[in-house]
Amino acid sequence: MSHPPMRRPPIFPITEAQLVSLFMQSFAFGVHALVFAVCMHRWFCRFQIAGLGTKSWPWMVVATSLFILGGVDVSLNLYDNIIAFVFFKRPGGADLQFETISNWINIVRSVLYFLVAMLSDAALIYRCWIVYAHWKPRWAVIVLPTLLWLGAIVCATVDVYYVSTLHKLATIPHEKTLRPYLFATYLMSLLLNFLVTGLIVYRMRALSKQTSSFIRQQRWNRLKTVSRIFMESALMYTLSVVISAVMEMISNDAFYGTTDVSVELAGIAFDLIIIRLWTENTREESRTITESFIMEPPPARPRLNSLGHYQLRFPPPPSRVSFAHSERGSVHTNISKVRRI
After folding, report:
1. What is the DSSP track for 28-56?
2. pLDDT tens for each residue of 264-282
3. Are the beta carbons of 261 and 210 closer than 8 angstroms?
4. Which superfamily, per CATH, for 14-289+332-338?
5. How many helices (H) and strands (E) does the chain have?
6. Which DSSP letter does residue 140 get?
7. DSSP H helical segments within 47-142, as ranges?
8. Predicted local distance difference test score (pLDDT) of residue 138
9. Where are the domains of the chain?
10. pLDDT in tens, 2-11
11. Beta bridge partners of 312
């Protein structure tokens, strides 16, 4: 009589994966809380400058929403581990608790994960919309990113539906029913991030080339700094999404740790962009104020004229570049628009 094949133990058991996931997300949430506090401090400092606070409140709404979603998700992660290891007394122990795929905690946390991803992607598309303020036609730039965003929402909705209705004993990376929709969501999110970040960087570099011939070196160097900020911050979150997709592909429960960290990295990357851009703006404004004092003409000095009388001679005022009637005034307007991001 042949015996059924024994089930091979997983390389990374679900209980270990959930504990490691809790540790990783707790650490990432601590970093998120610190970065969010710095971001809020920079925002309150901007309120002291007339007109800047009212322009930046939409970004703070997004940053606060990402922080709240990250806090709720790590709290549910902790609650899930407490239930599994402390209060779950049925046969099967913690493994049964974690492998119940339609558990309400799994459903809610799946919704939170996709909400964070869709919110951060929507904010990225809006940044692109602002950067291309004077591009004609402006709407054409965001058509494809918006379609990718809507497609990701549809796939994420289907994935959440199956998570809530399967009622199987399996983990998410081992359930093949979810795999096509997870892959589609990851793929469209990655394409959106690469495309929109590339469009923003392209616009920044185009502006730097247009302004380098008639604006001082520091000004157009700042546009290159803005491009680097976008690329570095976007790379951090995008890398976590790529690793999550790989973990899903090889059916490894390390998927839980990478996706949980991605929830926090989305907020961290968003906050870092705000902090670094506003810090660059503050430095630029301080430098401009300092130079305005340096460029003031020196006081008049008395000199003898041909008749032997003292005469006050004023040196000519320093020349300044005016954009009021310049043909390149639109480029200056674009730069000011970018500084509001």
Report:
1. HHHHHHHHHHHHHHHHHHHTTSTTHHHHH
2. 999 999 998 888 877 765 5
3. no
4. Rhodopsin 7-helix transmembrane proteins (1.20.1070.10)
5. 9, 2
6. G
7. 52-82, 93-99, 104-131
8. 81
9. 14-289+332-338
10. 444 445 566 7
11. 302
Strand partners, 313: 301
Beta bridge partners of 282: none
- Two tokens at 333? 């307007």
Cβ within 8 Å of residue 233, ≥6 positions away: 269, 270, 272, 273, 276
Q: In one letter, which amino acid is 63?
A: A
Q: Can you tell me the distance from the alpha carbon of 262 to that of 242, in angstroms, rounded to the nearest whole number? A: 10
pLDDT tens for residues 25-59?
999 999 999 999 999 888 887 766 655 555 678 88
Q: If we measure between CA atoms, which residue out of 153, 140, 240 comes closest to residue 199?
A: 140
247 touches 279 (CB < 8 A): no
Residue 81: how many CB atoms within 10 A of its CB?
18
User: What are 173-220's pLDDT values in tens digits?
Assistant: 998 899 999 999 999 999 999 999 888 888 877 776 665 555 545 555
